[in-house]
Structure formats: structure tokens, C-alpha cells
Amino acid sequence: MFLSILAAVFSGVAYVLYLHQVYAGGSVPNPASWTVWAFLAGLNAITFWKGSKDGLATAQFFTGAVGCFGVWAFALSTGKFAPLDAMAWIVLILCIAACLVWWKTKNAIYANLVLGGTLAVSFIPTIVSVWQDGRIEQPIPWDLWTAAFAVTSLNVLRRTDRMKPRWWFLMVVPILGVILHGIVALGVAR
Q1: Tens of pLDDT along 123-138?
Q2: Backbone φ, ψ for residue 163 (5° rounding)
Q3: CA distance 11 to 185
Q4: Per-residue pLDDT tens digits for 105-120
Q5: How many CB atoms lie within 10 A of CB 135?
Q6: Where do the structural domains in the chain lie, given as residue ranges?
Q7: Looking at beta carbons, which pairs linking 105-108 to residues 24 or more positions away fall under 8 Å?
Q8: pLDDT (tens digit, 9 = 90+) per residue, 31-81?
Q9: Which of 49, 119, 141, 182 would staple 146 via disulfide (CB 3.0–4.6 Å)?
Q10: CA distance to 43, 180, 183, per residue, from 186 (Å)
């Protein structure tokens, strides 16, 4: 229980800090990445909960869904997004196509794999932008999101019945969360 709450707190604090940074102009969110993440966060929370049947292990994902949507809605309504370039449009279209494939299958475990691939592709514009200019983001939210996904990975591994077939599918999104958020965290100027 402690790990679930810790991951949700890390995630929630990161979103509050990030929202403040966007408001103050210290972070410039990529619209392609954040649009996909806002949609995927809600979808991931639902499909992870359906696949795991574990509300506590899913706490971070529900916290992330609310926080991600809040950042997306604020950045959209206040014009705080960076301009969309050609790569961002391609990523956005690919992610929408992947979500449509999932929608057609309606399988929670398969959806988690599609979400993992979509998540990886959706990070491309943000990773490229941060590695080109690390000043467009601030490190603390990215460090906290990396920590939240690390704690969630440990928690999911600990709480999942590894006797079930394909149990490891539930590990895809948490582990990708550690890797992808960590890449952004490393690229942010300190």
C-alpha cells in the first residue's frame, strides 16, 4: 500500500510543479506529446486497472490521468504549447492510429502493449526538443515522474500474480515510464 501511495504522491506533486512551471513560462510543453499523453493517461488508468484488478497499484495512473489532463487543458486554453512542427504532426497521427487499432481489439492486456508503443512514440517530440535545448523544461517534475514510475514498476512486480499467463504485459507501461521520463530528465539543463 505504501508504494502505491508514494508513487501517486510523486506523480501528483510533479504535475502540480509542472503546471506552475508552464504558467510561469519555465516549461514549454510539446502539443503532440501532451495531447497524446492526456488521452493515453486516462486510457492507461482504465486498461491497467482492468488488466490488474488492483486499484492501489493503479493509483499512480489515475493521479497521472487527472494531472496530465489538467496540464494539457491549461496549456491549450492559454496558448502555452510550443508550435507543432512536421515531426510532431507525424507522431500525433501515428499515436492516433495506434489508439484506433486498440479500440478495434477491445482487449485490456493487448491495449497495455499498444499503449506502451504509443507512449514511446509520443515521447519523441519532447525528447528531441529537450535534447536540442534543455532549457525548455525544468528537471524536478521529470525526476519525480521517473521516480513515480520506478516505484510503480516495483509495486506492480510485487503485487502481480506472476503465475498468470502474460503477467509481464502489466510491466510494459511502468518500465517504459521510467525509461522515457528518465531520458527527458537527463536531457533537461541543470
Answers
A1: 999 999 999 999 999 9
A2: -85, -15
A3: 14
A4: 776 667 667 778 888 9
A5: 11
A6: 2-187
A7: 108/47, 108/50, 108/51
A8: 989 988 898 888 778 877 877 777 777 888 899 999 999 999 999 999 999
A9: 182
A10: 27, 10, 5
- CA angle 73-77-79, nearest 5°? 115
Dist CA 113 CA 172 (whole Å): 7
d(CA 107, CA 103): 8
From the centroid of its chain, how far is CA 15? 11
Give the total residue count for the chain. Answer: 190
Burial class (CB in 10 A: 0-12, 13-18, 19+), 72: buried
Fill in the amino acid letter for 18. Y
Cell matching residue 108: 485490456
SS (H, E, C) the chain: CHHHHHHHHHHHHHHHHHHHHHHHCCCCCCHHHHHHHHHHHHHHHHHHHHHHCCCCCCHHHHHHHHHHHHHHHHHHHHCCCCCCCHHHHHHHHHHHHHHHHHHHHCCHHHHHHHHHHHHHHHCHHHHHHHHHCHHHCCHHHHHHHHHHHHHHHHHHHHHCCCCCCCHHHHHHHHHHHHHHHHHHHHHCCC
Q: Name the pTM for this structure.
A: 0.84
